[in-house]
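> Could you send the DNA mismatch repair protein MutS prediction when you get a chance?

Sure thing. Input:
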Amino acid sequence: MAEMTPMMKQYLEVKNNYKDCLVLFRLGDFYETFLDDAKLVSNELQIVLTSRNGVPMAGVPYHSINGYLKKLVDAGHKVAICEQTEDPALAKGLVKREVTRVVTPGTIVEDELLPEAENNYIIAIGKSGEFFIIVLADVSTGEVIISEAEDLISLKDFIVASQPSQVLLRESLKDLKKEIAGVTSSMVELIEDWHFALSSGINYVKEFYSIASIDHLELDDKQVEVLGALFKYLETINFSPLKHLSLPRILKKTDSMQLDASTVENLNLFRLERKGSLFEILDETTTGMGKRRLRQWLLSPLTDRHKIDERLDVVHALYSDRHLLDELREYFHSVYDIERITSRLSTDRITPRDLQSLRTSLTVLPYIKELISNETAFDRLRERLELFPSELELLRRSIVDEPSSSIGDGNVIRKGFDAQLDSLRDLLDNSVEKIRAIETSEKKSTGIPSLKVKFNKVFGYFLEVPKSQSGKVPESYTRKQTLVNSERYITPELKEFEDKILSANEKIQSLEKALFLCVCSQLMNSLQRLKDAAIVLSEIDALQSLSLVARKYNYCRPRFSVDGSARISNSRHPIVERFVPDFTPNDISMDSSENFFIVTGPNMSGKSTFIRQVALLSIMAQMGSFIPAKDAMLPIYDRVFTRIGARDELASGKSTFLVEMMETATILSKATEDSLVILDEVGRGTSTFDGISIAWAVSEFIYEAIGCHTIFATHFTELTELSSMYPGIKNKTARIVETEKGIIFLHKVINGVANSSHGIEVAKLAGVPETVLSRAKEILRVISKQSALDKAVRVLTAEDLREIRQSKKGKMNRNQISLF
Ligand code: ADP
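Output:
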């Protein structure tokens, strides 16, 4: 490398302080990267790697930085942005440069870099005794949540369910890094233990919330430590405390139904590959904040009957009044993502267009409030919905109808807002006339009729005279340039005029910026109220979405039973019915005397659809949605567990069967009598006899020690014998009829057991030779006789039962607190 330039020295100093970041170094109109960073960046962004004085470099234009930033951050890099912090024109020697911000996946606030429908969470994890303390924040919306997990499984479930973009893990927990990285594609960063000190934690919490004491937050020391560590991190990368974060919400285990990662996946709540998801069906929201709210509701259905009914009342009101729903939706088309706009306001990343969107949203607020004022179901929402007349007035007065996207090109502040700005603009507006006046008077005084006043970037304003006339030019003209046919001159008068115009332009830019900031700082006084309004609006948006969907697909309002029974008539699977034209509805009836169903039937008979349907319907009902059925009475479940299908986890080195058993073990230890358990083919991943035995024992354990509503779909017809031994266990089967042409699936779930030879029927349908089929039948007869489980297996003794129930109690520790 040649001798190091002063700029390169400056760069290396910065890089040295930000070793774990890619440093984007502002050089004029470019952000440049150097050395190893340059090689990496040119590779990630597919941009040219150049070299100067032997130093590799790669740069991107400053105005398109966002797109590049997104790619780098998505690829898992932390990016430090090093700006020029003084005007290069005024700098003596090297321009000063400083890192002004570090961009990480979990701390982005720019709208164009974030998916609208999803929160962008950063999670900090610490430990208190056996428990993990989790703090979850979305800097783009200001939400802060504190939760905890009783063990690693629950912690991983929490991470999968919240899908954070970034995880901060206390260094002393570094052994878990691999486990955590295994369940999330997000960046997992270790944070040194001293960041979790209580005293600094208290200070950070006070500073971020601008409060003198943290007592009223009612946090315990460990929670303060983790919250403080997260705030410290946010301050280090944003270089100022974020003031827009809401006070932490502490989640209690009883607040919501907890859905673990495999349930979210098994039930297809969100989009996986190309299959349809429940969220897509339920999402008719019109705003980004409404989408995020709906998503949160789907991930954490409520367990409080009163709160569920509050939501259902609103959905019902809109469902019954088409006109009201249509009008509300119409207004909501003018509501923007105020939640994110207010966050950008407080992080100084707000744009003039954001203020325009805020103004439009605030304009329709009174109409929305008025519209919902006659419906008692909306009472609570309406009370919480404030109006913003003075903020609106300020925005109307200050910002032009259609401002430019960024501040600086003179089209943001409205005429009449500031006298000085107006007079500067008048000067510019009159400049064309002024030029014509100069031109006319010069033509006259020189007697050159073809003289013209022109402008270019190099010379500014000048007088152009044809060469043939140059003799008539007076002495006061200074020649600037000679062209083939003309000469160009300047005069003192023209220069003075030009200075005025140029400085007016500059003044307008800086004045507009100052006025814009002044408007923003006035709005900052209403920040918390605006954030509260955003929350109410997001809830109304989510509720109107649920009403529209209920109407569109003919859903019914669920009711909730007091005795824990479930009675649903004509229920449908919300996703499958969208793809199957003649969906067959099914009835479900469970109570304390019949709480365990064993569903048998051949492949494709509709078993999986049926059992998932039951789980989906209770999740929908508890999130406050209507459900696809004719009539429904449901219990309130504390959790829904699913163990479905053989998922391939070869990548993590665990066999399918091991995963299956781990999930089963979780259910056995965490389900309570108020849970719903859905099992599909448990025991399938091992040999038949092994499988049947495990499935059998698992069923007995759930039935005797837990006693919750359970639906078990299985190929093992042997399990149907359980019904003759335990009164609450019932057999169901998906009905089929056999015709000469083969089997017809009716998809109707009825009492009874599937005929075990259907497998052979299917084989026949598929054209397997007759000799093979008859041999199979013969073997089936022998095996059936040999297994004869009903006679061979003893019923559990009183002693067994005591042991089973005891073992369950031993495991019944505090349930994990759930998300949202
Ligand atoms: P199984 O679990 O018994 O193998 P599935 O539940 O996967 O069967 O159902 C197989 C197919 O049958 C589904 O993909 C769907 O197309 C159809 N199906 C299932 N249930 C119904 C129903 N109630 N009405 C109409 N079609 C159904």
